[in-house]
Amino acid sequence: MTIRIAVIGTGVMGADHARIVAYDLPGAKLQVVCDMNVERAKSVAEKTGAADVATDAEAVITRPDVDAVVIASPDFTHASLSLACIRAGKPALCEKPLSQSSQECLEVIRAEVAAGRRWVQLGFMRRYDRSYAEMKAALSDGTLGRAIMMHNLHRNVETPAQGFTADMAITNSAPHEFDVARFVLGTEYAAISAFSPAGADGKVGPVFMVVETTRAELVTIEINNNAAYGYDVRGELVGEKGAISMVDPVASRLDLGLRSTTAYAADWRKRYAEAYRLQDKAWLRFVETGEFPAIAASAWDGYCSSLVAEAGVKALAEGRKVTVKMVARPALYA
Amino acid sequence: MTIRIAVIGTGVMGADHARIVAYDLPGAKLQVVCDMNVERAKSVAEKTGAADVATDAEAVITRPDVDAVVIASPDFTHASLSLACIRAGKPALCEKPLSQSSQECLEVIRAEVAAGRRWVQLGFMRRYDRSYAEMKAALSDGTLGRAIMMHNLHRNVETPAQGFTADMAITNSAPHEFDVARFVLGTEYAAISAFSPAGADGKVGPVFMVVETTRAELVTIEINNNAAYGYDVRGELVGEKGAISMVDPVASRLDLGLRSTTAYAADWRKRYAEAYRLQDKAWLRFVETGEFPAIAASAWDGYCSSLVAEAGVKALAEGRKVTVKMVARPALYA
Amino acid sequence: MTIRIAVIGTGVMGADHARIVAYDLPGAKLQVVCDMNVERAKSVAEKTGAADVATDAEAVITRPDVDAVVIASPDFTHASLSLACIRAGKPALCEKPLSQSSQECLEVIRAEVAAGRRWVQLGFMRRYDRSYAEMKAALSDGTLGRAIMMHNLHRNVETPAQGFTADMAITNSAPHEFDVARFVLGTEYAAISAFSPAGADGKVGPVFMVVETTRAELVTIEINNNAAYGYDVRGELVGEKGAISMVDPVASRLDLGLRSTTAYAADWRKRYAEAYRLQDKAWLRFVETGEFPAIAASAWDGYCSSLVAEAGVKALAEGRKVTVKMVARPALYA
Amino acid sequence: MTIRIAVIGTGVMGADHARIVAYDLPGAKLQVVCDMNVERAKSVAEKTGAADVATDAEAVITRPDVDAVVIASPDFTHASLSLACIRAGKPALCEKPLSQSSQECLEVIRAEVAAGRRWVQLGFMRRYDRSYAEMKAALSDGTLGRAIMMHNLHRNVETPAQGFTADMAITNSAPHEFDVARFVLGTEYAAISAFSPAGADGKVGPVFMVVETTRAELVTIEINNNAAYGYDVRGELVGEKGAISMVDPVASRLDLGLRSTTAYAADWRKRYAEAYRLQDKAWLRFVETGEFPAIAASAWDGYCSSLVAEAGVKALAEGRKVTVKMVARPALYA
Questions:
Q1: Is the dihedral of CA A98, A99, A101, A105 positive or negative?
Q2: Domain-ending residue, one of D78, D97, D125
Q3: What is this structure's pTM?
Q4: Both A35 and A71 in a single domain?
């Protein structure tokens, strides 16, 4: 049985998902690509051989020739389109964040709870990255003993947009770190502090966060969206007996002009290409079987990330530690 | 149009190709797996959902419900099965070596020349590895200037079989190095010298080869099939202006017990999993379009590797440099 | 002219300084080693060929056959012995900290100001480490642009003593980080926050500090005295244009048992052996010329480290950011 | 007792030894620097505070106010000045090579044998480098099992002089590799093969040598004096159980412009500064005690290196393997 997939949104991420569905996902068919900008939709459809194009996302979701939906439209539409998928009974792969508002995340959660099953897989693709898998394994197999700290660092060459603020670094960039640290540690957050040094001239500075967990572990997160030198993500998990660090998987070293050098990616796509492919593959299996993938992020994980991000924004504004207060976790996400 | 594929041979490599065809190759269908050992064929068919099993390779090749063939049976059958595919007009992906006999390779070449087109893609999958791609790019984009030397090193934990000899290291393991160095350098071999130090107690020692090219570059190759510590492949290309080295793409570093450590693979499958996937994907496209993939290895490349391997065996036996004498390259492989 | 040196205190550090003076400091003579424990003093004297042993530190300082003094006795004696050296007009190399009390540091500062010159060089030997020198150079030569952040990490295999507390991590271990970050950045501290996750069973946990500077840079410091896996010091300086990280200067990599490994030192002595030698050499030159070494730490630097450590202890106890309030810097330390 | 030292030759190496003797060698006094070029001698004397300058090397050796001699004059004078030191009964530290002629090396050996003791320590300072020490230890402590191969690689930015030939790469640059591989392996050479690929335009190409030992180990040596990208020395010792590789001891990593980079030295002086210091210190102890340092190179080691270099030149010229035929080792060098 071939799964007919709609991709909603044809920006950078949507175009990437369309390409994966079209060329790297056996058992899937790219049925329709949808974008308010019909020209952009057509352009992606041409490159990927999509059967159809559309502009009305809600209508696409209810089409009978669409079995499942990838939501890669602008962030503010994620929650409402997820709700539409739940109403239509169509499994969705929703790009992060589910919503920047934790309240809106709760609406999605309530809809899934009411429906009695999960429909939404969230695009925290780092869970499918080999580095984090090896970290998680070093914890679960006892190599490291109990976790003590996790350090996370995310650097971009430059901010994704003009007018990017420190708050946006917390709500937009940091959720990947919030989610993956929760995922690796298997823990929940209790409190967050945030700091922001002066940036380069005319540019927003980094944000540095210290997050305390309910088990008294410490998670540090640096978000530096004007790092200039390259796209660089690092992580280190420190346990009782030792530590494990992410290694950027470079393929060659170049010796030239009195330097030995390795390359940084300019952005995240090359670094996480394999994680995206594996994530989308796991999601297709979820669509086929109805069984939520063991390591995928759910709507609940989306809520947790957004909630701590909200607390982080407050912590930065007020210059003090802010407590993270979660609602009770519904049994559906146990 | 779905391509119906037969996989002949269900040893380690055949089982891997069957898995790739079944789960990672959009547009392909695993039609039949064939092995003289029917139980082994059935076992692989079960894991991969193959439509059918068979035991007679020649018969499988001519089946009307088979569009293309992966040849992963024992080495000595590669050439004759390739010839059968050419006769049947079925594109083949043949595991290396095409034949350990350069004369037999020439038979395949003559058959393709007679047929007026290439039917056989050879499984030198390293050409699809990112490390070699970056080396080749550093040469072709002028970063390194002209090539001067290439150092290659191949180490296994232990020999694949009892009774493995230094000659087998040259004819069985070294062809990957012979091919990939030719591929990266874009050159042909002129002469080879070979040396073999004493091995560990009761084990065959490494073979070290120095190969001179027609452009007076130097290619060194160490094959150490009893390296004990891990599966380790390295390469370094040295040019006029600088050098580029392969980096083993590890994903994490573990700090434990006064050591900082990264992992070696136990064998080649994890190290080259992505190269195999990309190679098989390129081959599927070759099946669909008839256009031979730009970087894939042809029957001619198989001949070149086998020829230099034969010279290497002679060089080792006689303790002297042996000249490599190639036939003229048919226009089909220009 | 040979400089006759007294080493006071023959614990780990005192014994090391005695060895350096005896064997690696041309122009110096190890005149006397002094320890309340006369047997320990004798043992070190034997190993180093010291001319004499003594037990009364104050008396040693005033001996006419002693030109200069290395103070390596217990921490609480550093300030009073430094004052004795100032009174006697003898140049001192005082192990860190000058005092754990910033008030006591000020007494030493006032004595030097009254004397009209500096007599005390403080043993913050990391200033002589090549890694920090390269960081500082990358800042001063404009490579990195202006500094944004500096991350520092200090890990020991285990705490130096039973009953070691998080406060002691701040006052005893962190001063090296406080000083070297000030040294590299050329800045002063404005505020400090401190966090301490749960440690391994029955052991004190790490301390993580976020220090803000008067120029709105951010300095993070992890002190983990129960890291178990090795002695590990790291640093990263992040600027507007790029970043520079310390690399642990290992000399070999060992491939064994499916791992590629490098060694961690068990403690700081091997890691900083060369820094200690260069520091002591610079100090000897200070003794000879009266000219304070350009990069050495002064009593003022000792005060700055102790002051921020005191604020750090308070920040940890109160779970909030604490402001660092420095006295005006006397002209002597301009 | 202070040892009064004469440094003969004030080129790069002589000036370095003069500096070490003057500033880093407790117990030594730089009594005289000697060079046929008196201006150069004066210049070095000024920088190092040498007591005297001279131009006649033989006369310097016999001066009563000279206790020991560093020979750093041009290569062709090494043997005759070493003989003069033996005649005068003055311990010498002779820069490598002892002589490019193995016959001339034998003259020095015969003179020492006649004198009944060793007077000459040869400046193969790599024996004092930490990387080789760790390799040797991994062999002697059983970590690696028995040795199988050693790979050595020596690259310079450019040839030291116009008219530098492949033969000179063998006789002038390779001796360091010949010696250090013998030192690490504790073996003797049996045969050598040599190859030389085409170099960069107008420049001499590298030389690649394969040396077989009397215990059937294999030593490979690449000498590339026009490597362009940096001064780079590598070594790898491969044993039955694993392998150990030299790591260039860098102190920092710089992230800039989409690359992560570490620095290469422009020449050998920084890379081996500590090895030179330790070597000269060991030699001073030899002068004081008459006891030849355990790991230092003797006249015999100088002979062994020159002998294999001569065979290497022949092997390259004749394009075939050349046997190395050593004289019997005198008991003095057992």
A1: negative
A2: D125
A3: 0.97
A4: yes
- Chains touching B, CB cut-off 8 Å, 3+ pairs: A, C, D
- For residues C99-104, give the mean pLDDT: 97
CB atoms A230 and D264 under 8 Å: no
Q: What is the CATH number for C58? A: 3.40.50.720
The answer to whether residue C223 sits within a structural domain is yes
Instruction: Please report where in the chains the tokens 């099953």 appear, as a residue.
Output: A117
DSSP characters over C184-228 = HHT--EEEEEEE----STTS---EEEEEEETTS-EEEEEEETT--
Count of CB pairs separated by less than 8 Å, B with D: 108
Q: Give the number of other Cβ atoms within 10 Å of residue B251's Cβ.
A: 17
pLDDT tens for residues B224-244? 999 999 999 999 999 999 999
Distance in Å, alpha carbon of A147 to nearest chain C alpha carbon: 9
> Strand (E) positions, chain D?
3-8, 28-34, 52-54, 68-71, 92-94, 120-122, 147-155, 189-195, 207-213, 218-224, 232-239, 242-246, 252-256, 259-263, 322-323
Structurally, chain C folds into a number of domains equal to 2
Q: Which of C232, C259, C266 comes nearest B261 by C-beta?
A: C259
Residue spans of beta strands (DSSP E) within B92-251: 92-94, 120-122, 147-155, 189-195, 207-213, 218-224, 232-239, 242-246
Say whether both A278 and A240 belong to one domain.
Answer: no
In whole numbers, what is the pLDDT of chain C averaged over residues?
A: 97
- Residues of chain A in contact with residue D259, where contact means CB-CB under 8 angstroms, are 230, 259, 261-264
Residue A333 lies in a domain: no
* B255 at interface of C, judged by CB pairs closer than 8 A: yes
d(CA B187, CA B324): 13
- 8 Å CB contact of B206 and D240: no
Residue of D nearest to C129 (CA): D251
Would residue D172 count as lying in a domain?
yes
CATH code of residue D216:
3.30.360.10
C208 plus C61 within the same structural domain: no
Say if residue B141 is in the same domain as residue B264. yes
Q: Which long-range contacts (CB under 8 A, 24 or more apart) does C316-319 make?
A: C316/C166, C316/C167, C316/C170, C316/C194, C316/C195, C316/C196, C316/C207, C319/A321
Min Cα–Cα distance to chain B from A292, Å = 19
Query: Tens digits of per-residue pLDDT, B31-74?
Result: 999 999 999 999 999 999 999 999 999 999 999 999 999 999 99
The burial of B89, by beta-carbon neighbours within 10 Å (0-12 exposed, 13-18 middle, 19 or more buried), is given as: exposed
Give yes or no: residues A189 and A263 share one domain. yes
Range of the domain at C165: 129-271+306-323
Q: Which residues, other chains included, contact A160 with Cβ-Cβ below 8 Å and sequence gap of 6+?
A: A172, A225
- Closest CA in chain C for residue D277: C24
Residue D327 C-alpha, separation from nearest chain B C-alpha, in angstroms:
24
Inspect the interface and report whether the beta carbons of D208 and B201 lie closer than 8 Å.
Answer: no
Check whether residue B58 and residue B118 sit in a common domain: yes
User: In sequence order, which residues have a C-beta less than 8 Å from that of residue A159 and are 6 or more positions away?
Assistant: A203, A204, A225, A226
CA B273 to chain centre: 13
Mean pLDDT of all residues belonging to chain B: 97
Q: CA-CA distance, C66 to B225, in Å (whole number)?
A: 65
Q: Are residues B111 and B165 in the same domain?
A: no
Residue B206 has its nearest CB partner, among D149, D201, D208, at D149
CB contact under 8 A, B259 and C256: no
Distance CA C143, CA D121 (A): 44
CB interface of C with A, residues 178-197, below 8 Å:
193, 195-197
Task: Judge whether A206 lies within some domain.
Answer: yes
Most distant CA pair in chain A, distance: 64
CA atoms within 13 A on the CB side of A190: 9
- In the DSSP assignment, the letter for residue A15 is H
Residue of A127, A125, A119, A97 lying closest to A20 (CA atoms): A125
